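thread from #wetlab-drylab

HS: before we spend reagent money on co-crystallization trials with adenosine-5'-triphosphate, can we at least see a predicted complex? here's what I'd submit
DV: go for it
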Amino acid sequence: MCQQLLEVNNLKTHFFTRAGVVKAVNGVSFSLAERETLGIVGESGSGKTITAMSIMRLVPSPPGKIVEGKILYKGKDLVSVKEPEMREIRGNQISMIFQDPMTSLNPVLTIGFQIAEVLVMHRKISKKEAGSRAIEMLRQVGIPEPEKRAACYPHQLSGGMRQRAMIAMALACNPSLLIADEPTTALDVTIQAQILDLMQKLQERTGTAIIMITHDLGVVAELCRKVLVMYAGEPVEQGDVETIFNSPCHPYTRGLLSSLPVLETDEKIRLTPIDGTPPDLKNLPPGCNFASRCQEARDVCRQTKPVPVEIKPGHTVVCHCYITKESEVRSQ
Ligand SMILES: Nc1ncnc2c1ncn2[C@@H]1O[C@H](COP(=O)(O)OP(=O)(O)OP(=O)(O)O)[C@@H](O)[C@H]1O
Ligand SMILES: [Mg+2]
């Protein structure tokens, strides 16, 4: 069997706060092959960013800590890698694009300098060569007059241009894995579409595997091959895009899909948003995390945790509705 590029296995990242232990990521497993694209979806607070930060080993500690699980990158467990080695991997083999580029761009350095700096650090090339490679990267992400823009400071660029510059920086070292955390939510719709289009083209050309974190299932449909749906720090369903969109099994996934805005008489309307709110991550219920909002919940859902069931190869759902006697035996 071919080795996966990334294999996240029962990852648990908790925050130890005065108010209690926040189980932000609580048993997440997924895998990604080279060149593959995975979307992670789920509503606000479901643990998407903390999953990404755990892979990058950027969870603020304290109060955060990876308490269990493995993050195998090319077979190496990133959970136990020492910080100097992690610095080599970060930005070089695994890059991340953050929701707000201003948090990851340095306001007092020019765009060109920042991209060149990454190249000098990881690729050990001369400053001059890095400078011209930085301009080339800016050209590749569709920034007009890249020589001129390279000399600009982040605040001198528009939001869309800054996000392009971030993408250029993230891709400068040709990483095997790019994690994009809501890369377009801060942008208006037209620019959003342009950036997604750009990412798709770059992905096809460079073959970088992508983890795309988003609230927007439309983005997933456009860009990803596989999807992981998260709820309250846990995966509830995963599979390939066609399966999840055409035959979603988990009531939460079905809810997400039916709350997708639909185009009707040129007006976007939200159909059926899911009623209720997610549970307190410091005080999770004994049964299924979604039970209190689930129309199909039965007693068993409120009493015991469901185990993952593989409905068909590559399609897994964590819901009592799909647990049969045989699947229970298999999961033990
Ligand atoms: N430093 C922290 N201390 C305590 N709790 C934290 C900390 N950082 C994150 N959390 C909690 O972890 C949970 C998961 O957060 P995360 O940022 O991963 O959510 P998300 O799915 O990315 O949401 P969004 O869609 O809003 O970006 C949240 O409940 C959040 O409050
Ligand atoms: Mg987030």
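DV: Residues 189-206 form the longest helix (18 residues).
HS: ok that's useful, forwarding to the group
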